[in-house]
């Protein structure tokens, strides 16, 4: 009992002891973070400002962009600040917050992708009933259900992991509080309970996965039955971005779940973690902007409106200034003539 100590904070792994490399890491991750946040914000703004995009598919997409902003904001800002300040420690409460929000955004995104696949299934396989099935109220319920299911999933797992004190080593071989690394230093009762929870939730996730595969199988079988080439291309173009995002999410999730956390170098740990914490949020807006012409056109219109509005404001201000200068000169001229 003399060697027993309760953990109150964690030490995150630093990927370089050289100060210059730490600053370089911070600058690189800051650029990645700003690019991801800007891309997702532009996607949300384009969908909100363009009336032609006020439909279920783009409503789900705007929620997906918000989730991507939240997902990448859980890990990268803290890592950037730690790299700039040369700090490795993270409080127990901060670790719990990272675990909670990371699981929350990931679970909500998976549930939302299931809703998005059903939306595409109805749009392509039952187009005549699309307006009846995918009503605004049902879209709101599906989105609210996704957020609530993510909240419930995250609360159950985080509550279990942090219900008992941690003991042993407080070193986490990752740049954030990753779930497998946190479980390594958790109590045995917590680990066993978490194993049961993961096994139970895996059954539900497997059911959702089978639903996704069946939905896209029906979608592609229906697409192949469309007689015209233009019709097939249009149908594929509406669902291929979502399928690419789904495959990216599933592949990154499989890397997160099945990776070996013990026999990997710090650089490998960083690259593996990047694949499921950063890449989806960074690539999702690129996938939609490159593969969806409506989103690209809406972004272009929005940027043009912003640019021309600023330009017109600048011109009007210059005209107003010149007019005031002219009136001032005329007044000085009148005063000079009177004098």
TrEMBL record:
<keyword id="KW-1003">Cell membrane</keyword>
<keyword id="KW-1133">Transmembrane helix</keyword>
<feature type="transmembrane region" description="Helical">
    <location>
        <begin position="235"/>
        <end position="258"/>
    </location>
</feature>
<feature type="transmembrane region" description="Helical">
    <location>
        <begin position="270"/>
        <end position="290"/>
    </location>
</feature>
<dbReference type="GO" id="GO:0004930">
    <property type="term" value="F:G protein-coupled receptor activity"/>
</dbReference>
<keyword id="KW-0297">G-protein coupled receptor</keyword>
<comment type="function">
    <text>Odorant receptor.</text>
</comment>
<comment type="similarity">
    <text>Belongs to the G-protein coupled receptor 1 family.</text>
</comment>
<keyword id="KW-0807">Transducer</keyword>
<keyword id="KW-0552">Olfaction</keyword>
<dbReference type="GO" id="GO:0005886">
    <property type="term" value="C:plasma membrane"/>
</dbReference>
<dbReference type="GO" id="GO:0004984">
    <property type="term" value="F:olfactory receptor activity"/>
</dbReference>
<dbReference type="InterPro" id="IPR017452">
    <property type="entry name" value="GPCR_Rhodpsn_7TM"/>
</dbReference>
<feature type="transmembrane region" description="Helical">
    <location>
        <begin position="23"/>
        <end position="48"/>
    </location>
</feature>
<keyword id="KW-0716">Sensory transduction</keyword>
<keyword id="KW-0472">Membrane</keyword>
<feature type="domain" description="G-protein coupled receptors family 1 profile">
    <location>
        <begin position="39"/>
        <end position="288"/>
    </location>
</feature>
<feature type="transmembrane region" description="Helical">
    <location>
        <begin position="96"/>
        <end position="118"/>
    </location>
</feature>
<dbReference type="InterPro" id="IPR000725">
    <property type="entry name" value="Olfact_rcpt"/>
</dbReference>
<feature type="transmembrane region" description="Helical">
    <location>
        <begin position="139"/>
        <end position="156"/>
    </location>
</feature>
<dbReference type="InterPro" id="IPR000276">
    <property type="entry name" value="GPCR_Rhodpsn"/>
</dbReference>
<dbReference type="Pfam" id="PF13853">
    <property type="entry name" value="7tm_4"/>
</dbReference>
<keyword id="KW-0812">Transmembrane</keyword>
<feature type="transmembrane region" description="Helical">
    <location>
        <begin position="195"/>
        <end position="214"/>
    </location>
</feature>
<protein>
    <recommendedName>
        <fullName>Olfactory receptor</fullName>
    </recommendedName>
</protein>
<dbReference type="InterPro" id="IPR050516">
    <property type="entry name" value="Olfactory_GPCR"/>
</dbReference>
<keyword id="KW-0675">Receptor</keyword>
């Amino acid at each position: 009992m003399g060697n027993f100590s309760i953990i109150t904070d964690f030490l995150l792994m630093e990927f370089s002891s050289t100060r210059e490399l730490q600053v370089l890491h911070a600058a690189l991750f800051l650029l990645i973070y700003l690019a991801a946040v800007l891309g997702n914000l532009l996607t949300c703004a384009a969908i909100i400002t363009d009336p032609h995009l006020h439909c279920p598919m783009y409503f789900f997409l705007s929620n997906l962009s918000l989730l991507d902003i939240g997902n990448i904001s859980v890990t990268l800002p803290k890592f950037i600040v730690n790299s700039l300040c040369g700090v490795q420690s993270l409080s127990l409460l901060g670790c719990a917050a990272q675990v909670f929000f990371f699981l929350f955004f990931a679970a909500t995104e998976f549930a939302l992708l299931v809703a998005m696949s059903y939306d595409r299934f109805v749009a392509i396989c039952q187009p005549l009933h699309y307006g009846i099935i995918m009503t605004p109220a049902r879209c709101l319920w599906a989105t609210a259900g996704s957020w609530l299911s993510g909240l419930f999933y995250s609360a159950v797992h985080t509550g279990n992991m942090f219900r008992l004190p941690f003991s042993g080593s407080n070193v986490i071989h990752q740049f954030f509080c990753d779930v497998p690394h946190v479980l390594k230093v958790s109590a045995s009762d917590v680990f066993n309970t978490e194993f049961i929870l993961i096994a139970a939730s895996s059954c539900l996730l497997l059911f959702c996965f089978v639903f996704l595969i069946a939905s896209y199988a029906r979608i592609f079988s229906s697409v192949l039955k469309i007689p015209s080439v233009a019709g097939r291309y249009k149908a594929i173009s509406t669902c291929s971005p979502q399928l690419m995002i789904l495959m990216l999410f599933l592949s990154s999730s499989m890397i997160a779940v099945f990776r070996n956390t013990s026999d990997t170098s710090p650089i490998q740990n960083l690259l593996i973690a990047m694949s499921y914490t950063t890449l989806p949020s960074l690539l999702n807006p690129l996938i939609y902007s490159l593969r969806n012409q409506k989103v690209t056109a809406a972004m272009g219109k929005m940027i043009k409106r912003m640019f021309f509005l600023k330009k017109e404001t600048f011109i009007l201000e210059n005209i107003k200034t010149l007019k005031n200068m002219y009136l001032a000169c005329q007044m000085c001229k009148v005063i000079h003539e009177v004098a």
